[in-house]
Amino acid sequence: MTPPLSRPRSIHLVGLTALGLLGLLATPSAAWAHSSAGAPGATSGLTSGLVHPISGIDHLLAMLAIGVVAALTSSRRTALLTPIGFLTGMVAGGVLGMGGFAPPGHEVLVAASVVGLGLLCAVDLRRGAIMLPLLAFLFGVSHGQAHGLELPGAASPVLYAVGVLLTSIALHLCGALGGRAIRGVPQLRVAIGTLVSGVGAVLLLGV
Fold first, then answer.
1. Which of 21, 26, 54, 163 is most deeply buried (CB count within 10 A of its CB)?
2. Crossing angle (nearest 10°) for helices 106-122 and 132-149
């Protein structure tokens, strides 16, 4: 079990988190939306896929938050199935996106998922939440669809998808490590969740 953080350290981490996300809020709006990564005419698609999940604040926060949420639940099965659900949904959504399926409001769904994941970070999940994998799957579909829609024209769809999945898994693991560190610090958990939801709300207003 990860020992709880001391109060001074918790306050320090809250401050750093707040400053970091406030800095993100101050960045140009172009950096907030996911963009097609990689050089034009790239043929492999792997680099584009690796970069795409971190090219927009919506994807980045969602990937990290999935890991945090998984680490906060007390059920090992739920903790494992939550990121798997997200990744599975992302693959399904990616196939739809690569096929050109873009329903009205798909950007709203991506931003709304950030709000929802922030709220899940803020609430007490120690007793487990059996619906988390299903929610993660639905959130993953919206993000995967966005990834698929922005597949660079000359890129290999398979390598692009592999790149997206590899970076997503890495971000899930980073989020899980952070989630384990804050399990015993409810104030920090609530602060981080509130800030993530706040960023999602700003994204919703900008859609």
1. 163
2. 140
Which of the residues in the chain have pLDDT under 70?
1-43, 126-128, 207
Cα dihedral 99, 201, 186, 176, rounded to 10, equals: 20
The one-letter amino acid at 143: H
Domain residue spans in the chain? 45-206
Output the pLDDT for position 128. 57
Structure-token match 């809020």, residue found:
25
Label residue 166 exposed, middle or buried (CB < 10 Å: 0-12, 13-18, 19+): middle
Helix axes 106-122, 57-72, angle to 10 degrees: 30
**Of all residues in the chain, what percent are helix, strand and coil, respectively (each to 5)?**
75, 0, 25
Would you state the pLDDT for residue 198?
96
Burial 72-89 (b: 16+ CB within 10 A, else e): bbebeebbebbbebbbbb
Q: Please say whether the beta carbons of 204 and 105 come within 8 A.
A: no
Residue-wise pLDDT for 162-171, tens only, equals 999 999 999 9
Question: Is the alpha carbon torsion for 81, 86, 92, 95 positive or negative?
Answer: negative
